[in-house]
Design goal:
Shape: globular
CATH class of the domain at 131-239: Alpha Beta
Order of helices and strands: EEHEHEHHEHEEEHEHEHEE
Largest sheet: 6 strands, mixed
Helix content: 25-40%
Structural class: alpha/beta
Strand order of the largest sheet: 7-6-5-10-8-9
Amino acid sequence: MGSGELRVPTAIAVTSADLALPPQDERTVPAVVLQDLDRQPLDRSLTALQAVVEQYGHVIVVCSGALDPTVERRLHTLRSLMESDRIALFRPELPPLGLAVLARQLRQLASCDLSPGVLASAGRLLTHYIHAGALLGSVTKLDRVPVGLKSHAKSWVPGNHFGVLAHPEPQLVRIGPEAALTGPEFGTRMLVARGQLQSDWVTDTLARSWSVQGLREVPLPAESERWWGTGRLIEFCAYLSDLSVLYQLVTSVRQSTCHWCGIDVIGDRCVFCSATPPVPETRAG
């Protein structure tokens, strides 16, 4: 792996401080926190983002699906005003804790010899290896995971808890002696963030059944309650923590050059300019 001492790493930005998890290792670069973008004047937000781009060259902003729409609009407005292809807005379909984990994985990889385009593209790849869910006290307002009528009815019964996996494949079970969620088939660590729910099911039963190699508790992200539709929850995320494994995953994928902005990418879409590969021309006859 390259050490990256001769350049400033690509900035990995998040929209609130609670999405900037503590470093996983000594190489994890700090997150850039773009706090209160919608609460300050547009020119001040513009000046702040321009300073980040000038310092780092490229910025990857990792956004939650539960992000306040006014913040998302402000980000798109700033990117348009700067007319810059050096700002990537990445919004994966992950719950807030899973998103914070992904942002930290990108912060780990930012210390390596990966180009900005490859690093930004790596977000989509690494998302597939994240198992994110929650233990919920109610699923009546859960609209991001398919919920059957029986589960809705049972959620009105006091004391019922539900284990929900939002990613990579949606699952929902009512907690009981036989309740289980399908977990990763590779070694992971787990983060747990407690809301207003008292239970040891995640840290005892689930962590044991998934054979996690380490467990740590962190504060619940502010956006989690909106994402899951309830404050009575315990959010969890199983993930790959080792930098060498993350690096090997990313560098084993074939790289190509974006035909529009010219940067190196992996996958079929440039995260910076949003261009997709041109459709090959077919010759008649």
